[in-house]
Amino acid sequence: MDYIITFLVGGAICALTQILLDKTKLMPGRVMVILVCLGALLGAVGVYEPFSKWAGAGANVPLTGFGNSLFQGIKKSVDQEGFIGIFKGGFSASAVGISAALIFSYIASWFFEPKMKS
């Protein structure tokens, strides 16, 4: 049942995002920023944590999960280090995920022929 919930929640988030892209004139970059900010905002009000425990990877993998991860890192760092944690927390919380994305995309470029968009 966990797999079904994860699939449905992740699919719903992606479907709503696609509808937002199709029905508005928002550029994809702006929609991505909206998703990250929405995840951080929902984490700040305490809604995202119980939601992500229930939905699993369906809530953690999309960009809303990334926004929540940034918020949780900043919150933890501010609790430990004070004001300077505002600047350090997001980097320490998301560094592994960002590094993995860069490394795996570089490895993928060895197997495929990346081209510049013309």
Descriptive overview:
- It is a single chain.
- This protein has helices at residues 2-23, 28-44, 48-55, 57-60, 63-81, 85-111.
- It is mostly helical and 118 residues long.
- The protein contains six helices and no strands.
- It has one domain (2-111).
- The mean pLDDT is 89.
- Keywords: Membrane, Transmembrane, Transmembrane helix.
The count of strands amounts to 0
| Basic shape | globular
| The number of domains | 1
* Structural category: mainly alpha
Mean pLDDT: 89
How far is the first residue's CA from the last residue's CA? 45 Å
Radius of gyration: 16 Å
Instruction: Count helical runs.
Output: 6
Could you give a short account of the major beta sheet? none
Order of secondary-structure elements: HHHHHH
- What percent of residues are in strands? under 5%
Poorly predicted parts: none
Percentage of residues assigned to helices: over 70%
Could you list some keywords that capture this structure?
transmembrane, Putative membrane protein, membrane, SpoVA, 118 residues, mainly alpha, Spore_V_AE
Q: What is the structure about, briefly put?
A:
By secondary structure, the chain is mainly α. It is 82% helix and 0% strand. It has one domain.
Secondary structure: elements and pairs:
Blueprint: H1 2-23, H2 28-44, H3 48-55, H4 57-60, H5 63-81, H6 85-111
